C-alpha cells in the first residue's frame, strides 16, 4: 500500500491558501512526542507543516533525530535527550502553539515567546500596559520580552496580562466588558518576578482586590505545593513502588530502551535491590554493562572516583539513585542536571559550607525535606531548632519567631535561592545579592523551589577537568556540552532561524558529526509519559533522614529464560526416559525403574513428586554424580523467527536444528522477549513481525538461519539483511526507513490513542491487541455495553478539534449492528469516530507512521466490493 496523508485528519490551522502555502519554506522540523504533545496532535502538525512548505526530518538509521540538520524542534517540554544538542546547534525549541500561530498569521512567528524552557519564565505571557508611566512601561516590557514574553499594543483575545495601577483605563474596562481571559496585575508582580528571577503566582497582585494592598505581610499564607520537587527531595530516596510490581502490573518501561547502564559500586543499596534495578532495566529494553566505555548512563552516589571522572568527561549521562528512580516512575527521560539532587553529591560537600549551621522556617512538606537534604549535601549542618550558634536562617517568608530571633542574634536571613544557587555553582554565593534577601509580601517562596539547574561548566571545571585524551565520540560530546553552555542564554533569538548562520562552534561540531541521510518523508522521534507517582509527604520529626526501604525483588527473568531455552530439550528427553519402563525398552534397566531405584537408595521415595522434594547440592554430588556438563557457548544473537517454512510439520527436525543453532551462539526466542534481530523470508504482516518491528530491531533474511545450519558457521550478519523490493513497494515503505522510524518511536507510535475492536472480528481479537499495544495504543474490546464508554471532554479542551477514536471491525451482521452505537458513544465523548478495517492498523504498524485515509473506513472499503 502506498503511503497516504490524512485527508480527514485535522490540521493545526486553516486550510492552506494557494498564495500562502510556503510559510514554512526552507524549514526542517523534528517533533518530540510527550504527554503534552500526543501522537494525534503530532500527526496533525506534521501534516500542516508539510502542507505549508515545510519538511519533517526522518530519523537516521539508528533512530536518532537529525538535530544538526533541523531548523526547528517542536516540543512542549525540554525533557528529551537531545535538548543539549539543540542548544549547541542553536536550533530553537518551540511549542506546538508556534506552528498554529505561524499559520494563523501567514508568516513565521517569533520563537522566543514559544519556548518550553522553564527558565524563560514569561514565555506564555502576552503583555499590554495601561496607565503605567512611560519609563516604567519600557522597563517592564523590555524585561518581559527578554524572559520569553511578548507585547501586544492593544487589548485582544491573545492578551494574557494587563499591567495597570487601577481598573479605570479603557484597556481594563474593555477586558471586563468583553470578559476576556486575561489577568489585570499591578506592576509590583513584574518587579518581584524580575528580582527573584522566578515567576511567582499573580494571585496577590490581581486587581481590583490585590492582597498586597489590603493585607498585612504577617497575615497567614497557605504553604504551597512544589511540583518541581517530585522525586527529587533526596539523593538517597526510597525505592519507587513500581519496583515491586509484576511485569503486568505496571506500564511498559521504555525509558531505558537501547540504553546501556552502569551501576556503580558506591551506590548505598543491597544485592536484592541492585538485582531488582538490573531486572527493571533489562526488561525495559536496556542493558547492564560493567565498563564505563560501554555505558550510556552511569549511576553513582559521589562525584569522585575513576569511573565517575571518566564517564563525566566523556559526556555520559551521570546521575544518582534519585534520578534513576525518577526515570522508572515517570518513564520519561529528563536531564540529571535539571534537578539538584538528581546528580551525584560531593563526598565532602561544597567548599565553605562545613562550618555553617542552618535552620529553616516557613517551608513545609516536600520543600522542607528537600532543603534539609540539600543543606546536608552541601556539607553544612542542619538544625531543626533556632539557636544562637546558627549561622543562617533560610525562610520562605520574612515573618515568624525564627525571623525575629535571627534579627536579634544577627543571623543571616535569606531565601532558598541562596542555597540552591550555591549548590548549583559549587561555591558559596554572596549573601548580599538582592534576590537572596527579597521576600514578596504575600508570597510563600516555597512555590518556586526546585527550579534551579546545575551548572555543568562548573562541575566540569571542579570535578572532572582535563579531557585532552578523549576519543572522537567523547570529544564531540564535550564540544556539544561546551557549545550548549555558551549558547544557552542566546538560543532562540532569531525569528527566522532557517535562514540564519550557526555559531562557529556549532559548525565545528557539525563537521565532526557522522554523515546522515536527509530524507523528506515524515516521521518523528517519540517521547512517552506515564501517570505521575503520588506525591510523598513525610510525617514525623523534621530531622528524620529518609532512608532506602528494603524492597522485595523478583528473580532475574532474562537469565532464567535464557537457561530454560538451553535446557528445554534435555528436560523433555529426561522426562520421556523416566516414564519408560523396562518392558518398553526390551532391556533389564528401564527409565522408570532406574528412577525408582535411585529414589529407593536415597530413602526419599514418597507420594510427593520428585521435583517438589528439596535436595541439597552436596547430597546430589555424593549420591548421584552428574554427567559431565557440555560446554555451551554464550548467546551472541537472540532472534525472533517468523514465516519460516523449514520446520513445518517436523518437530523433531526443529528441536535438532535449534540445538545446532544454540551451539553456534544463536538462540531462537519468542516475540515477547528482548531480541537482537527479527528474521523472516519477506516483509509479512504477521503478529510476530509487526510486534517485533515496533522495537526497531534489524530485520534479517531467514536464509541466514539456513546458512548457519548448512555450514555449521555463523556468516556475517550484514550479508543477510532482508531485501524485499516487491513488498516495500506494496506497503509503501522501505525496511530501512520503517526500522529507523520504529527506533525513534520506541514503541510509542500510537501512544495514548484509544483503539477499540469488535469481539467477533475476523482472525480474533488477540493478534490485533498485541500489535496495537506493542505500539503503545490503549486497546479495548467493544461490546456496546454500558461499561464501555469514552471519558467526555469539553470542546474547548481539544486542541485542533476532537481527537479520533478507532474501532477495528470486519463486516459480519453482528459487527455492523455495533457501528451506530460506537459512533454515538464517540460523539458524546466529543471524539471523532473512525470505524476502520484492520488494514489500517496493520499498515500503520508496518510503516511505523501514523497516517489515515478515508479508504480505511469500513463504509468506503466495503462499498468497493
From TrEMBL:
Domain of life according to the entry: Eukaryota
Pfam assignment, any one: BRCT_2
Ranges annotated as biased composition (Basic and acidic residues): 593-614
Annotated GO CC locations: Cul8-RING ubiquitin ligase complex; nucleus
InterPro entries: BRCT_dom, BRCT_dom_sf, CellCycle_DNARepair_Reg
Positions with biased composition (Polar residues): 545-556
Entry's Gene Ontology BP terms: DNA double-strand break attachment to nuclear envelope; double-strand break repair
PROSITE patterns: BRCT
Sequence segments annotated as region (Disordered): 511-561, 578-628
PANTHER family in UniProt: REGULATOR OF TY1 TRANSPOSITION PROTEIN 107 (PTHR47667)
Protein name, per record: BRCT domain-containing protein
Gene source species: Coniochaeta pulveracea
